[in-house]
Design brief:
By secondary structure, the chain is mainly alpha-helical. The chain contains five helices and no strands. α2 packs across α3 and α4 packs antiparallel against α5. The chain is globular.
Length: about 120
């Protein structure tokens, strides 16, 4: 049985994780053009639609994780988002030197976020 402290910490974790992605998504509405260009460069079909879906995943997944009764769905959506973002934008294997190190760090950070979202899913079930 969760204690009041446990419940408070879970709520805080959901607000921080979900809220961050909600803010990222809202901020990325203004970046649809550059995101589309990046996806075009990677050869992704329908890059504008893919960019819009990515931003929508951030906003909807963030909101569901932060405040919704569907936290597991939000966490799952954000796992999909961070995996795709890692493969499409942090492809460290294509870089050398400092650029490679930056993308390796982003990959490790995204793996950690995926782990946090797995916890959100576990506590939401």
């Amino acid at each position: 049985m969760p204690t009041d402290l446990t419940s408070t910490l879970i709520l805080l974790a959901r607000l921080l994780l979900g809220g961050a992605f909600l803010i990222f998504g809202i901020r990325n509405i203004a970046n649809i053009g550059p995101l589309t260009a990046g996806l075009t460069a990677r050869g992704l079909p329908l890059p504008r639609i893919a960019a819009i879906i990515g931003v929508a995943l951030q906003i909807i997944g963030g909101a569901l994780t932060a405040i919704g009764p569907y936290g597991a769905w939000g966490g799952a959506g954000l796992i999909v988002f961070v995996v795709l973002a890692t493969v499409l934008f942090h492809n460290f294997w294509d870089y050398k030197g400092a650029d490679r190190a930056n993308h390796v760090n982003a990959t490790i950070m995204n793996a950690g976020l995926a782990g946090a979202f797995l916890l959100i899913i576990a506590i939401s079930l």
